[in-house]
Write a structure and sequence with these properties.
By secondary structure, the protein is mainly β. It has 2 helices and 43 strands. It folds into 2 domains: 152 residues, YVTN repeat-like/Quinoprotein amine dehydrogenase (Methylamine Dehydrogenase, Chain H, 7 Propeller); 277 residues, Methylamine Dehydrogenase, Chain H.
Length: 548
């Protein structure tokens, strides 16, 4: 109706409602002319009021006063206004996707942009006010450098999941029944289970222990969620309920054996599936995922494997920091890693060990067979590995004191040496495209042979398997996590308190000509029909049974 009401948002009592002060009088709008947007122009102690045809700058202190009345100079209606205090710019967006920038003091025209072709939905500054982000209803985000007055990035994103919380990490989990879940670890250390098909939030995992969470693991085959705390204790939840119910706590008998990391692997994707000496009881266990723990004393232990058992193995001389499962494209080749998943481990001594799974002929227990050791070159880093991943025969790592990736390629030289399991190691050094901020996540997709990394400054870098930089995506510091959603390269990002989807054709140069064997997208089943939702109940953290 063209009316503007002024409230005091700092009342005497914290729980009080904002206090009505007055209605702004004598605004230069026509009667009943709708005001469609308001922005705060704090440098001038004023607010910007926008109708379809007029922009009004109204000073609210020390006295109410009209500073500017500006008529729409363009043929289409205003839709948004936005103020940038660093450059003292007022920015207008129009319903056809057009953007005009003015210097607000004299309303001097500075720049025009026309890279959107649909209605603009929002304008936002980066934290340092150097960048302007604009979004439109066709899911396009443009990023502008206001100092250099140019477009520096354009990307197509789709709102994938509405979380309304800051997400610290994302992880995709699957099982052999084509069931998949995304786990999102929130800033308050609660977790959300998300469907990779619809983006819907399926289950909520509260942080019942009220402690910082180091890692979340989802065993879909048993509907279990492992929540590892920094003190080495794990709370196990059942995912049948919403919110998920804590069943028991897992802890070691002493801090010397404290759990430091965990991973799971599906036996059907390992060499166990090809071993013919297993009995029927063992074969029945192959459709369930196997959970491994890494410990502070360098041991790797098997925690959950049904009829599969394993004696803990001393894998490292120092504390294990990373325990990961390789990703494989399941392509047939003379390289073992392309059709068989293995385990990777790294400790405080910065060495990386590769482990294959086999069955002992004596007692049919699982054995971890050391395959390969990767040691850093001289003076690569004096800090431990922070992130570790592997796709096929490519290993990627990030050291905690560095802002780039190291990639090693494993080559099968057994053909020439006639010695089984002989591997050559080739390191692909970085090409100089370092992150400017601290690396916060890495992820990989085996089919495209791509790695992605993100940093604390809001930048995403896409790398190929030779560590060549393919693409950079610039967002802002609200970027918190990234994860490849499918093998074909769909990338989800935790950004501005929601999760967004970026398709590979929108970030890969010449995607249609990308020389890969295309594979149809995996149709994940969003729900597990075998599970039954049982009656909801809650139990205090102190009363949860302890598994030692």
């Amino acid at each position: 109706m063209g009316r503007v009401l002024l409230y005091n948002t700092q009342p005497l009592q914290f729980t009080s409602q904002p206090l009505f002060v007055s209605e702004l009088a004598n605004l230069p709008f026509q009667s009943m002319e709708p005001i469609i947007h308001i922005c705060h122009v704090k440098t001038h102690r004023a607010i910007g009021l926008l109708s379809n045809r007029y922009f009004v700058l109204w000073q609210y202190t020390p006295s109410e006063n009209l500073l500017i009345k500006f008529c729409n100079p363009y043929q289409y209606d205003f839709i948004r206004c936005h103020y940038n205090s660093k450059f003292d710019y007022i920015i207008f967006a129009f319903i056809d996707g057009f953007i005009l920038i003015y210097e607000i003091n004299q309303m001097k025209h500075i720049r025009r942009y026309h890279y959107h072709w649909k209605i603009i939905t929002d304008l936002e500054n980066s934290k340092d006010q150097n960048l302007l982000l604009s979004s439109s209803i066709d899911h396009i985000i443009n990023i502008w450098n206001l100092g250099k007055k140019k477009l520096i990035n354009k990307k197509n994103t789709i709102l994938f999941s509405i979380t309304k919380v800051k997400v610290k990490s994302l992880k995709l989990f699957t099982d052999m029944q084509r069931i998949a879940r995304i786990t999102a670890l929130a800033e308050d250390n609660s977790s959300i289970l998300i469907s990779p098909v619809s983006g819907c939030c399926l289950n909520y995992v509260s942080n019942i222990a009220k402690k910082p969470i180091k890692q979340i693991l989802h065993d879909i085959s048993r509907s279990n969620i492992y929540s590892l705390q920094f003190d080495g204790e794990i709370v196990l939840y059942r995912a049948d309920n919403n919110p998920c119910v804590a069943e028991y706590k897992i802890r070691t008998k002493s801090e010397q054996y404290a759990i430091t990391c965990m991973t799971l692997i599906n036996p059907m994707r390992t060499q166990l599936f090809n071993i013919n000496t297993m009995q029927t009881s063992v074969e029945k266990s192959l459709d369930k995922q196997v959970v491994f723990f890494g410990h502070a004393n360098g041991y790797i232990s098997l925690f959950q494997g049904d009829s599969l058992i394993m004696e803990p193995i001393l894998a490292h001389k120092t504390s294990i920091l990373c325990l990961e499962t390789s990703l494989t494209s399941m392509e047939m080749s003379n390289i073992l890693f392309t059709n068989c998943e293995i385990l990777l481990s790294s400790s405080t001594d910065r060495t990386i060990y590769l482990w294959n799974l086999t069955i002992s002929k004596l007692d049919e227990s699982i054995q971890l067979i050391h395959m390969l050791t990767i040691e850093q070159e001289k003076n690569i880093s004096f800090e431990s590995i922070k992130y570790l991943s592997m796709i096929d025969n490519f290993i990627v790592a990030n050291y905690s004191d560095q802002n780039y990736l190291h990639i090693w390629q494993l080559l099968n030289i057994s053909i020439r040496t006639s010695i089984q399991n002989q591997w050559g190691i080739v390191e692909h050094p970085t090409k100089g495209s370092h992150h400017h901020g601290q690396v916060q996540a890495i992820t990989a997709t085996p089919k495209l042979k791509l790695f992605a990394s993100s940093d604390s400054e809001g930048c995403i870098k896409i790398w190929d398997n030779t560590n060549s930089l393919l693409r950079e995506l610039y967002l802002d510091r609200s970027l918190c996590a990234i994860e490849f959603l499918l093998q074909n390269g769909e990338l989800i990002i935790a950004y501005q308190n929601n999760i967004h989807l970026i398709l590979p054709e929108n970030y890969l140069p010449n995607y249609t000509k990308f020389k890969i064997k295309q594979q149809n997208s995996i149709n994940y089943i969003a729900e597990n029909n075998r599970l039954e939702v049982i009656e909801r109940f809650s139990i205090p953290y102190q009363s949860i049974p302890i598994f030692v």
